């Protein structure tokens, strides 16, 4: 739950606190920094939701008691990075981008320890493979890492909720694996991060699943559409910036393309939710004005269920990236670069905690409110 408690001056009271983590590969170290700042301030979270690398980290957090979460998150990032033999120049040095690109090419050729490794037969439709899938990398190392760092028994019985975004390969339907509704195991975490064509689809109960980022990279809808509705404070951490400039070369073009594809549609989602929430509040008001005898009418039970008076406040972080950002930013696992992402996340987390805009008074009928923490492209 949040460290903040409602004051007597109208500061909103939240029934639960959620952490929403977007997919983005190596950029996910930014999540680590934001969470560190929030955890140090006393936020332990009731609900973790994520997609891809966000889903992996959400599962690690939900699968450990609060006092061990940061330790296991740090172990994860240390385990999946190759050792760095010598320091790289600072972020604004012209050579830094090329060092990152060289490291990214090394990742493409050899994978990452504790994460994924090349599967030389994967791209070939060989008859003895059996499953008929084509892919470039094997996720077995990640499976072992997750089984070591996540206590799935704790995850499924601790009370902290976990939601993981994925896509059903055959139906094309976006789904959420949710610990409130099913038992979560390592397959569900792997499925949330099984981005094609790099990784194979993960089979669960006879169906195959890919990375949820193919349809919705930010798990905001799972909170906004949750039922029964409860007032929720959401910390939403995005890794791709929806705003940007016109590319001037191929590197910038691919970088911008990824931002547009994988950035969240939070503005639209929250505005749609606000309009719907206004309607729900109107339903509640109208229902309360019915004669008492009519309120007990069984035929109006569905109408009553449509109404609500809850509030969802979204504290929105958007990672603008570093001076050396490039098209390979999401698979550059150079330890020094991962440290840069984490450091910026921690700084942004501290800035949010200094201002705490979610402590402001809200209007009586506020349904969904968004607080931007860091301006994109700054």
Percent helix among the residues? 25-40%
Shape: globular
Number of helices: 13
Low confidence ranges: 5-9
Count of distinct strands = 11
| Rounded radius of gyration (Å) | 22 Å
Strand content: 5-15%
- N-to-C SSE string, H for helix and E for strand: EHEHHHEEHHEEHEEHEHHHHEHE
Distance between the termini: 31 Å
Question: Structural class given helices, strands, pairing?
Answer: alpha/beta
Question: Sheet bearing the most strands, described?
Answer: 9 strands, mixed
Mean pLDDT reading: 90
Structural summary, described in words:
This protein has 378 residues and is α/β, with parallel strands linked by helices. The protein is 39% helix and 14% strand. It contains 13 helices and eleven strands. Strands 1, 2, 5, 6, 7, 8, 9, 10 and 11 form a nine-stranded mixed sheet that branches. Helix 1 (29-40) runs antiparallel to helix 3, helix 2 runs antiparallel to helix 3 (66-79) and helix 5 (140-149) packs across helix 7 (186-192). The chain is globular. The chain starts with 15 loop residues before the first strand and ends in a 6-residue tail after the last strand. The relative contact order is 0.19.
Q: Secondary-structure map with pairings?
A:
Layout: E1 16-21, H1 29-40, E2 47-50, H2 53-62, H3 66-79, H4 94-110, E3 117-118, E4 137-138, H5 140-149, H6 152-157, E5 161-168, E6 174-178, H7 186-192, E7 202-204, E8 207-211, H8 221-224, E9 232-238, H9 250-262, H10 266-288, H11 292-295, H12 301-306, E10 312-318, H13 335-355, E11 368-372
Parallel strand pairs: 1-2, 1-9, 2-5, 9-10, 10-11
Antiparallel strand pairs: 3-4, 5-6, 5-8, 7-8
Helix pairs in contact: 1-3, 1-13, 2-3, 5-7
């Amino acid at each position: 739950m949040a460290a903040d408690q409602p004051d007597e001056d109208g500061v909103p009271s939240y029934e639960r606190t959620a952490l929403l983590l977007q997919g983005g590969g190596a950029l996910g170290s930014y999540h680590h920094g934001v969470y560190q700042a929030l955890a140090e301030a006393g936020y332990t979270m009731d609900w973790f939701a994520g997609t891809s690398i966000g889903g992996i980290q959400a599962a690690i957090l939900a699968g450990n008691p609060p006092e061990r979460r940061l330790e296991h998150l740090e172990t994860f990032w240390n385990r999946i990075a190759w050792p760095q033999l010598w320091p790289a120049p600072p972020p604004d040095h012209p050579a830094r981008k090329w060092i990152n690109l060289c490291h990214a090419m090394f990742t493409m050729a050899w994978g990452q320890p504790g994460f994924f490794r090349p599967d030389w037969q994967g791209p070939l439709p060989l008859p003895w493979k059996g499953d008929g899938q084509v892919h470039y990398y094997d996720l077995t190392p990640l499976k072992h890492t997750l089984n070591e760092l996540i206590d799935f028994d704790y995850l499924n019985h601790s009370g902290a909720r976990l939601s993981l975004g994925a896509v059903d390969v055959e139906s094309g339907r976006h789904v959420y694996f949710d610990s409130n509704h099913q038992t979560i195991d390592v397959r569900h975490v792997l499925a949330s991060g099984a981005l094609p064509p790099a990784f194979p689809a993960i089979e669960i109960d006879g169906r195959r699943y890919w990375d949820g980022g193919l349809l919705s990279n930010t798990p905001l809808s799972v909170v906004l559409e949750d039922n029964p509705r409860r007032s929720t404070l959401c910390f939403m951490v995005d890794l791709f910036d929806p705003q940007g400039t016109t590319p001037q070369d191929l590197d910038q073009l691919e970088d911008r393309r990824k931002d547009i594809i994988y950035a969240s549609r939070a503005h639209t989602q929250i505005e749609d939710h606000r309009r719907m929430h206004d309607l729900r509040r109107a339903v509640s008001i109208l229902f309360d004005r019915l004669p008492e005898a009519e309120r007990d009418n069984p035929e109006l039970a569905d109408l009553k269920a449509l109404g609500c008076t809850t509030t969802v406040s979204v504290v929105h972080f958007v990672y603008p990236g570093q001076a050396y950002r490039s098209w390979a930013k999401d698979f550059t696992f150079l330890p020094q670069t991962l440290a840069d992402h984490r450091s910026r996340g921690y700084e942004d987390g501290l800035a949010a905690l200094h201002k705490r805009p979610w402590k402001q008074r809200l209007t009586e009928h506020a349904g969904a409110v968004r607080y931007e923490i860091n301006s994109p492209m700054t």
